[in-house]
Amino acid sequence: MNRDESLRALDSRDPWDVLVIGGGASGLGAAVDAAARGYRTVLLEQHDFAKGTSSRSTKLIHGGVRYLKQGNLSLVLESLRERGRLLRNAPHLVSRLPFIVPVHRSWEKLYYGLGLKAYDGLSGRWSLGPSRVISREETLQHLPTVAANELRGGVRYFDGQFDDARLAICLAQTLSDLGGVALNYAPVLRFLKDNDRITDVVARDAESGNDFEVRARSVINATGVFTDAVRRLDDAGATPLITASRGAHIVVDRSFLPGDSALMVPETTDGRVLFAIPWHEHVVIGTTDSATDELSNEPHPFATEIEFLIENAARYLTKAPGVRDIRSAFAGLRPLVRASTDRRTSKLARDHTIVVSRSGLVTLTGGKWTTYRQMGEDAVNRAAEVGGLERRASATNEMLLHGARLVAGSKESAPTHWRGYGTDAEQLGQWADADPSLAAQLHPRLPYRAVEIVWAARREMARTVEDVLARRTRALFLDARAAIDMAPKVASILGSELGRDANWEREQIAAFTTLAHGYCLE
Ligand SMILES: Cc1cc2nc3c(=O)[nH]c(=O)nc-3n(C[C@H](O)[C@H](O)[C@H](O)COP(=O)(O)OP(=O)(O)OC[C@H]3O[C@@H](n4cnc5c(N)ncnc54)[C@H](O)[C@@H]3O)c2cc1C
Fold this sequence. Notes:
Elements: H1 3-9, E1 16-21, H2 25-36, E2 41-44, E3 60-61, H3 65-69, H4 73-89, E4 94-103, H5 106-123, E5 132-134, H6 136-142, E6 153-162, H7 164-177, E7 181-183, E8 188-194, E9 197-204, E10 211-221, H8 227-234, E11 242-253, E12 262-265, E13 274-279, E14 282-286, E15 290-292, H9 303-316, E16 328-337, E17 352-356, E18 362-366, H10 372-387, H11 424-434, E19 441-443, E20 446-449, H12 450-459, H13 465-472, H14 475-478, H15 480-498, H16 502-517
Bound molecules: flavin-adenine dinucleotide.
Flavin-adenine dinucleotide is lined by residues 21-27, 44-47, 51-54, 56-60, 187-188, 222-226, 230, 247, 287, 297, 332-335, 367-370.
């Protein structure tokens, strides 16, 4: 995947079959599905892939236990099926994780036990293992820091966990492997029409400042919380389709939740679900759910959200994190399909919606990471109809994603997190063997090596220090201060890979440091 090559491919005046706007889960899923059917496909992302919501999730590939409680069986079934497919198609990035619901009253064992048995039942052949009620002792063995006061036991079940931004990069690489084109830093500015039908998209190469036109038979709008802004580029009077809900997370050291399981609290003080999940040798605690009108790719967690997470963590963990223990705090915005004018967002549907406007613009919105593949398939079906493309069936059901074939990191000396690179880990290892300076770890608190920066620049279209530290590695999300410390080294390696000067490096360090301070709480 190379940005200059993508730009050159866009010079072509031959119309593309499918043009996707937005490089998050939804857009990447649609683009991969289109390219896998053999359609000529291009994806344009205004910032970096997964810059928006798709790098800010709770990192779960799940059926959604709480949708079961809401009685949304079709969504749970679809999610469980997709969870199974994803575990098979991207085993390097998605894995099975045990979760424990601690119980404090005897009726809860029955209530949650039965609910999770129903979850198992719905999983059918995609089940990740049977859930079961466990004793107090076993609960403490799996979750040594869970609050033991009045603890009666727990219910243990299985769900999927993943690295969201790395899966997005993997999808962009899959798109490229399939002959499609992905371009980051390319905002779509407007549409050109003939007889009220969209014929071209006008976009900007944000690096050079040059605008360019791309001809396309069908256009998919998959722009998350910016869905309505793009719909208004097509029709200034378009009715708003989505509403946004904020969710925040905090990240702390693994010592706050040692053991092999995640903690799941089905109902916190205000009725929300709370997770504490081991992730990349840290613990992610979240999330919140509140309506917001402020749409941004870089939302900041509110002090009230942090307080809520700290307070509830203290309720369920013996070792409760304080503000000073927080290594990183981040927020994301869910694009939720408007069901009505009701502002209580946790009651809105998580199902995805596809709307086709008079101009032929296919808008894909709502849904969740877990169901991105199905969302993409549905959107491409509509785009093919609208664009008059030859009918071809989706081919992504059983398609392995980039790097999936071999469970990498098998070489003993390879860092364990290289598993996420899949088959590419072998080449990373070869580069590091050939130049030992590339094997150097960049920060004592994080496992990332210099070779990963080189790899990100050459193979993963990383263009800025932020791309590397936030989404190619997950340094910013795991430990924002360590990420700030790493920035000069990253700027120097990336600068030399991209042929940039010292001034660029200084600007990059300053911009990243300012951004990363938003993830630090002190
Ligand atoms: C707090 C939180 C926790 C979540 N946890 C989970 C979870 O654990 N599991 C799960 O399955 N789901 C989860 N979700 C849901 C999931 O993260 C989202 O549904 C999904 O990431 C949305 O992807 P998207 O592609 O629609 O939006 P985005 O990821 O926001 O992507 C849209 C992209 O469009 C780009 N764009 C916008 N305008 C333009 C333009 N004019 N030109 C070009 N590009 C443009 C943006 O820059 C952005 O990158 C969570 C969501 C939140 C908020």
